Every structure is written in structure tokens, then in C-alpha cells.
Amino acid sequence: MAQKPIGKKSGAKNTKKTTKPKRGIVIPPKKQTLVKQKNVQKKLTSNINKNIETIMATRAGAVGKLTIMKGYVDPTSDREKEKKMKQ
């Protein structure tokens, strides 16, 4: 039986895989008290985030500028108010 003649091998393709950034492994706690603490912490953080989102949504609907910090006063707004009062 005749064999094929020996030819050139095709070059290997350079396929680069895009690597995702490595993240630390989070091992869930085994003790019941730690599990409960973790669940409470999750609930609290979700409630805090939800509260912040609702506050920002209401402020976005308002006329003024968005500020997260309490008591923050924009210095330009004070100047504008003074000009309006003088007129």
C-alpha cells in the first residue's frame, strides 16, 4: 500500500487566551454562629445600599445638584443667592 509523500507540517496557531483577573477564594464559614453573622452582614449592607440608592434617586429628581455629603454647600450657589437678594 502506498503512503502519502512527506510534506511540510502546517505551523501551529498562536491562540492566546484572555485571562481574567484572579480573585481571592472566599471560603464559607462552617460554624453556625459565623453563618448567622455573615447573613446579618449581607442584609445590612444590602439595606444600606438600597437606602443610598433611593436617596440618590430622590435627589436626582429634585432641582438641585446631587451631593452625598450632609451639609455640603456649593460656594457658587451662595454667591448666586446673594446677587439675587441684592437686586
Distance between the termini: 107 Å
The dominant shape is elongated
Which regions contain 5 or more consecutive residues with pLDDT less than 50?
Answer: none
Number of strands: 0
SS-based class: mainly alpha
How much is the average pLDDT?
A: 77
Region (Disordered): 1-25
Biased composition (Basic residues): 1-23
Family: Belongs to the UPF0390 family.
List the helices and strands and how they pair.
Blueprint: H1 32-61, H2 75-86
Region (Disordered): 1-25
Biased composition (Basic residues): 1-23
Family: Belongs to the UPF0390 family.
Question: What can you tell me about this protein's structure?
Answer:
- Belongs to the UPF0390 family.
- This protein is 48% helix and 0% strand.
- It is built from 2 helices and no strands.
- It is elongated and about 105 Å long.
- The N and C termini lie far apart (107 Å).
- The protein has a domain of 47 residues.
- The chain is mainly alpha-helical.
Please give a quick description of this structure:
Residues 1-25 are annotated as: Disordered. The protein is an all-alpha fold.
